[in-house]
Amino acid sequence: MRQESPGFECSIKEEGRLARLEPRGRIDGLTSRDLEKCLAEAVEGGERNVAVSLEHVTYLSSAGMRVFMVFHKKLRHAGGEIVFSQVPGFLMELLRTGGFDRIFRIVEHEEGIAAEEGSVQKAPGAAPQSFREITFSLVRSTAGKGTFCTLGSPGKLGESGYEAGDIVTVKQESVQFGAGLATPGERFDEFCDYFGEACIVSHNFFVYPAREHTAVDFEMYSRGERACLNFLYGFSFKGPFALTLSFEGEEGPIELSRLIEGFLSLTDAPLIGMVFLAESKGIRGLTLRRIPLLSRRPANGKDIFHQENFPEWFDFSLEPEAPNRLLLAVGIAAREKEKIPEKTRELFPERSSFHLHGCEYPPELLRREPGHFEQEIERIMGRYAPLKLRHLLGKSLFSYGLAGIVELEG
Predict the structure, then answer these.
(1) What gap in Å lies between CA 35 and CA 68, rounded to an integer?
(2) pLDDT (tens digit, 9 = 90+) per residue, 252-265?
(3) What is the pTM of this model?
(4) pLDDT per residue over 362-385, tens digit each?
(5) Cβ(44)–Cβ(248) under 8 Å?
(6) Cβ distance 337 to 270 under 8 Å?
(7) Considering only CA atoms, which of 209, 218, 210 is closest in space to residue 328?
(8) Is-contact 134 247, C-beta < 8 A?
(9) Contact 211, 183 (CB under 8 A)
(10) What pLDDT score does 135 carry?
(11) How many other CB atoms are found less than 10 A from the CB of residue 74?
């Protein structure tokens, strides 16, 4: 594939997990956008290591160098890099004068890159597996099963019938992973206006309050803190990951419902806890606009899911939204919903065998090795504030990602 404009063109070759770029002509303020498109195409194809031959570049301005710097920084965060090869003398002087030879790796010939490429992107012990046009690379653990707990009941959601006595309060330190309708706080009269879709990742709590002009609020966990989390309903689970894995669509984006079928195909557990971090290609989800307390029950006496009330109570995405954002999701899935305990079964929507909430983050490249799963979650949570949080629907689309699976008891 070639990106072209007057005085510039760029070819891309993919070799294993390495992308090779060969720009030709001037790289300046007029052509840097074409270079940017070329690099973006290579990265979107999954490559985290990009070899750039400068042999046929006749001019390189600061505008062009800035493009290389931006992508190099992104790739470094994802465990990759840009490597320059076959650099003409006049460009080598420019790179050294600007100190770029201390930022980029520079090799004389492309063979020097190929010699090291074999060690890149391979996760020790990761076994490839395919399911319905999804490629999984997974690492199994001999760790035992995790534990599962329901928090409150969804029984009063439809009628908007919750009262103070229905709230289940838990300590943040006791919840490793979870999701539901929740809010932090100590006193009902102070926190009752801040319930919303919530999720807990490694004890860190995120909530999207059901209010006008809302935004994601979060409580990052510090060992020893005893913050209270209040649930109208939800669930929590904890335990070691039986599986850590990467996944990628073989023929385009993966629907969430198919991805979860894939997760279940990798284990015999009847109930699993899921945590995944993935690149969105279109999110379908919903969030509450109002808090389902008895004092706020619809005046017409009908269920909040009734067609007369639904638009006022829910923000529902008719079309896929937020492509290319990262999504950090937490949830549960059942192999055969009818065979799990009734109290657990109540947590699943009527036509679904999974319940997932997800935090959206700005676009960012991820490492693709399963062994970096937990580090990548910590990196994204520490680097960015979440943009939105939703209950996820099965038509959501993803290109690739990392996941951890906890096999659950009860």
Answers:
(1) 9
(2) 999 999 999 999 99
(3) 0.82
(4) 998 888 889 999 999 999 999 899
(5) no
(6) no
(7) 218
(8) yes
(9) no
(10) 93
(11) 18
